[in-house]
Amino acid sequence: MTNKAKKRKAATVFAIPMACLFASSIPIAAEEPNYDFSYEMYGPVTVMIDAGHGGIDSGAIGANGVYEKDLSLQYAQTIGAMIQSLDPSISVLYTRYDDQVPWVDEQNTLDFEVDDLNGRTNAIMTMAPTYVLSVHFNAADDPSASGFCGFVKGEDASSQAVYSKVSQYFQEMGYSYDRGLMTTMDYPLQIVDMNMSSSMLLELGFLTNYFEVSQLSDPSMMNALCMQIARAYVDTIHGV
């Protein structure tokens, strides 16, 4: 795993008042790849995308200086936009749409990590989406560590199917390698475990690996990876 605090452990969920949750009309600056996929309108399905970290929590810091919180937000918004470009009948929500985490009083919190996790979990439970995707990036002391991986509930066949497609599509485009899909029976994760949705935390690569973080930060590669993740969700939803 990783040496950084990744918000793995479960914590008690408090009823924290939530700020507005944001629909997927957020403009995405990056140009979408010109893929030609045709889907029938499906609905009603909702995918809620959680961009990891934010606010005073930068997450991992990449070998090129990029903050995980910023990269996860870019990926989350791009994935959401691409899901809707493939099937506009699928609703997309986000836990955050900028660097703010309004469910945490950053000036007065006694434990930012607990309050942050509780706020995100409360948002997911309130909205009760069909799918939850929490976007993260990994880090390690070993700068050669690389690869992507995922975490799901052991009984969550839908998220397991999504991950299988993500792995297939990533490998088809020659991106990194699959470190495997793990279950929260071995690695408890509040953001995955404490809701009734099909939920997955996806670690897209190692920011501490200079080659990998350079790939992940490249706009063209970002768009390509996000399209494969969007395809994986839409294909799973459509039973492809």
TrEMBL record:
Pfam families: Amidase_3. GO terms for cellular component: outer membrane-bounded periplasmic space. Gene3D superfamilies: Zn-dependent exopeptidases (3.40.630.40). InterPro entries: MurNAc-LAA_cat, N-acetylmuramoyl_amidase_3. Residues 1-29 form the signal peptide. Keywords: Hydrolase, Signal. GO terms for molecular function: N-acetylmuramoyl-L-alanine amidase activity. It comes from the Bacteria. One of its GO terms (biological process) is peptidoglycan catabolic process. Residues 47-232 form the MurNAc-LAA domain. This is MurNAc-LAA domain-containing protein. The keyword Cytoplasm does not apply.
